[in-house]
Amino acid sequence: MIEIMSKDKKSGKTVFLLKSTNPGFANSLRRVMQEEVPSMAIEDVEFVQNSSALFDEMIALRLGLIPLTTDLKGYEIKGEKDEVSAKNSVKLTLKAKGPCTVYAEDLKSKDPKIKPAFPKIIIVKLLKGQELELEATAVLGRGKQHMKFAPCLAWYSYKPKVIVNNSSKDFAAFKDKFPPQIFKDNKIDVKLIEEHNLYEAVDGVNEDIVKVEKDASNFVFTVEPFGQLSVQEIVAAAADRLNELLEEFSGKLTNAGVAEPGQMR
To answer: pTM of this prediction?
Structure first.
């Protein structure tokens, strides 16, 4: 079960609570979100004209690292032996003449659903008389292939449980050793510790005043999307992909005679 704790409307960064599970599943979900959930990124670039100050390879590298909004339902991952087609790729073109600054928004996509997530990323600056014209091919890929395909950064920690004793005999002696942000009406407030994420700052100062315990079955996840997909899409796709990998693993064990069908579920 997932419970949303906070979400930044501008960046999309989301913190949620993953309940009633174990470290193995939590880490598997984290890795699948980063390495297995596919996203679009520019893979090949064909230059028609480039008289800018940057080499073709440098511009191609920049283009590859521009996050592209991704339509997971409209495209499929290209296999090693598959030809480039409309099913697994999309073309983007760019044509600019200086003097100007060339931005990611100057890339014109054949599919309006696939476009730069951040329009104002600078690609190159062109001086008077300099030109840049190219055609780029974006494909679906996974983060385990290349970091440019990773849709997010994800990490987690055990859910902290804080016990506060404002009546401790040591309170006066240790009061100044705690962060001032956690005090309300001259007493330590548990909600302020959570609000300011100061668990580590209060842990170990004096356990008779503040004791931090960690719940090994509930995990606080933080997911920072890079722009290709929303956190909701990333988590949903990760869950589906994790099920696929488990089914595949179960099938291999069954074929090897290690487990009967259904035992790995």
So the answer is: 0.85
